[in-house]
Amino acid sequence: MAGLDDNTNEGDPVQHDRILEILRSYIASEVLDGKDIGLEPSTPLLEWGVINSLEIARLVAFISQQFGVSVPAEKVVATYFKDLQALTALVIELDGRQAS
């Protein structure tokens, strides 16, 4: 999937939920070796050590490939990677900027 739908915005719950599920599935399969430990949108990924700096780099590459958006260096900070909810909002935000 190269890019998101043109009507993507935070007000679109279907798109939001789809992005959230893709990110959750990626972390469960690639980071947690297929162990779905009950990742919730608010599970603290950094605080609990689910992801580290190497995993963040892999996640940035995945987001670029999967959603067709580039994550600028200034967005690779804890605020955007703290949980799945923040990651989903980041993807939506970046897609909105590219559409502008």
Give the tags:
single chain; 100 residues; disordered N terminus
Indicate the proportion of strand residues: under 5%
Compressed to H and E, one letter per element, the order equals HHHH
Radius of gyration: 13 Å
Number of helical regions: 4
Q: List low-pLDDT spans.
A: 1-10
Q: Give the N-to-C terminal Cα separation.
A: 19 Å
Helical content (DSSP H or I, runs of 4+):
40-55%
Query: In oligomeric terms, what are we looking at?
Result: single chain
Number of strands: 0
The structure class reads: mainly alpha
The average pLDDT score comes to 87
* Main sheet characteristics: none
Gross geometry: globular
Short description:
This protein is mainly alpha-helical and 100 residues long.
Can you tell me about this structure?
About 55% of the residues lie in helices and about 0% in strands. By secondary structure, it is mainly α. It is globular, with a radius of gyration of 13 Å. The two termini are about 20 Å apart.
Chart the SSEs and their pairings.
Elements: H1 13-31, H2 53-67, H3 78-81, H4 84-99
Helix pairs in contact: 1-2, 1-4
